[in-house]
């Protein structure tokens, strides 16, 4: 049914870059056989799922939305892929994305832009736009996305589905092609909060192959969904309703807060005073880390290689010039510049200091509040082509998601109504590793 749905819809939506048709049928047949011989059902038994194309899959093409990796068939599975298999879900294919997860509209995919199933003239968001579009279009029950500065939450908001960025370190990054290692985090995109809890349960947990993986006990996320938000204290940051917020988005978020009130929660306006510095700090830090992480793409070890190089430098130069798209090059140049000697203190170090202040803002609010709630993005999905030539405007879409990433906190986006026919996302932010509170509130609201 999943492949049929994809055949019927994906020529319009563009959510998949590769399909795992033979592999999936084989996997499904194995599950049937196991069940027939009295085996137990795994947590995600038989559920068709997608994977953003930056998670490596043994023998299944993994492009990261880039020409550079157009011929790359990995020789191993990412930890999340192994965990999904153990939970007995079936991998349907690899979802479209902005090249190397850099972008917020999917228009930076080197192959084709994914489109928003609610309105094909609009973007699905990004960079996990293919994952969100696939779930919204009913092609799969869930997909894994990755979120560095909003790339799970913002596309989930634009496509009217649920997306969770877990606490940094909760889900292993082993086998996730790195964009910005101190920020990257894998998480589920699903139709509802219960499904998110199931998928999170399957993929969370310590992994010795990822040195930043957190060694914490994994709670039972499903039992957190008990509907009880009575007495819950919610902080609502005034900075998330500033310049650039669509009045209709604001109205929907305020309506959602009324729903929380009616369930016995209380909310108050709070301040996260360093929010203004978040976008600048993020683009310096993420680009710096990216410039270093992407150094491995040299035309020798992975992917495409320029033809007939004159010498080694020519091989590097032409492979990288031909393999990377414009946005990736922009970030590599920005990051290399910010890290270069003489500029390090002025840019990278300053950005790290701003990151600390942003994290402290959250710590202070969490001394008095259980959760922070606001919009996921200041607007609904914009039209394809509308922002692609204006990177700064594109960067500002992430104003509500980036601070959370810099602080490493868990946050979910849940649908909270429509504005001019397009979905609006409500963002619920929690304390580190307090996914249970985030999921409980999101589930009670939804
Ligand atoms: N839009 C942001 C960027 O382009 C976030 C990307 C992400 O979270 N991967 O960097």
Describe the structure.
- This is Glutamyl-tRNA(Gln) amidotransferase subunit A.
- Residues 1-439 form the Amidase domain.
- It comes from Cohnella kolymensis.
- Belongs to the amidase family. GatA subfamily.
- A hairpin with a 2-residue loop joins strand 10 (411-419) and strand 11 (422-429).
- This protein is an alpha/beta fold.
- Helix 4 runs parallel beside helix 5 and helix 8 (278-293) packs across helix 11 (345-368).
- The chain has helices spanning 2-13, 21-36, 79-86, 129-136, 153-159, 193-203, 247-262, 278-293, 312-323, 326-339, 345-368, 391-396, 402-407, 435-445; strands spanning 16-19, 48-52, 90-95, 142-147, 162-165, 185-190, 233-237, 266-270, 371-375, 411-419, 422-429.
- It has an eleven-stranded mixed beta sheet with strand order 1-3-2-4-6-5-10-11-9-7-8, sandwiched between helices.
- It is built from 14 helices and eleven strands.
- Residues 101-104, 127, 147-151, 179, 286, 398 line the site of glutamine (GLN).
Question: What's the total number of strands?
Answer: 11
> What letter string, H or E per element, gives the SSE order?
HEHEHEHEHEEHEHEHHHHEHHEEH
Tell me the overall shape.
globular
Identify the quaternary structure here.
single chain
Active site: 52, 127, 151
Enzyme class: ligase
Catalytic activity: L-glutamyl-tRNA(Gln) + L-glutamine + ATP + H2O = L-glutaminyl-tRNA(Gln) + L-glutamate + ADP + phosphate + H(+)
Domain Amidase: 1-439
